[in-house]
Amino acid sequence: MPATVSTSHDYNASPDRVWQVATSWDCLREAVRGLIDYEPLPDEPMHQGQVIKTNVSLFGRLPPFPYVMEVVHFDPEARTFASHEYGGAVKAWNHTLTVAPTPDGARLDDTIEIDAGWLTAIYALWAKFMYARRHKPRLRMLSAR
């Protein structure tokens, strides 16, 4: 049975700046440093139709496994994107990200629908932890620029 995980984080930065950080492959690598190693990630900017075939290693210590990320929707004006991802035990990791203005800056909402068979509940816990952990590195990246 698939599971859905949602997270929401507020930033004291413009929606455009938050969008820029949230859709940068370099910033993704920094936001998950110590949790996930992706090799490789593209040098080109994120865009609709992009298909990334990479290898994922949890904590940079576990053996890497093939993983595919497909950017199925990318709208910079609306500040939304959606990806379909899969690999290893993950049959589907469908991620939707939205950045919206708030009175103090911007809110970033992530929704992830996960199907990993009998491991779905474990992957859902992992997703909740991992997406929450991205907040502090993003704060650092936003304040550094």
What does this structure look like?
- The protein has 145 residues and is an alpha+beta fold.
- The chain has one domain: Alpha-D-Glucose-1,6-Bisphosphate, Chain A, domain 4 (2-Layer Sandwich).
- It contains four helices and seven strands; from the N terminus they run βααββββββαα.
- Strands 1-7-6-5-4-3-2 form a seven-stranded antiparallel sheet, with helices on one face.
- A hairpin with a 6-residue loop joins strand 3 and strand 4.
- The protein is globular and about 40 Å long.
- The chain starts with a strand and ends with a helix.
Q: Quickly count the domains.
A: 1
Structural classification: alpha+beta
Count of extended strands: 7
Helix content: 25-40%
Q: Determine the CATH topology.
A: Alpha-D-Glucose-1,6-Bisphosphate, Chain A, domain 4
Assembly classification: single chain
Overall pLDDT confidence? 96
Assigned CATH superfamily: START domain
Radius of gyration: 15 Å
Which stretches are poorly predicted, pLDDT < 50 over at least 5 residues?
A: none
- Bulk shape: globular
Main β-sheet, in a few words? 7 strands, antiparallel
Can you name the CATH architecture? 2-Layer Sandwich
Order of helices and strands: EHHEEEEEEHH
| Strand percentage | 35-45%
**What's the arrangement of strands in the largest beta sheet?**
1-7-6-5-4-3-2
CATH class: Alpha Beta
Number of helical regions: 4
Question: Gap between N and C termini, in Å?
Answer: 42 Å
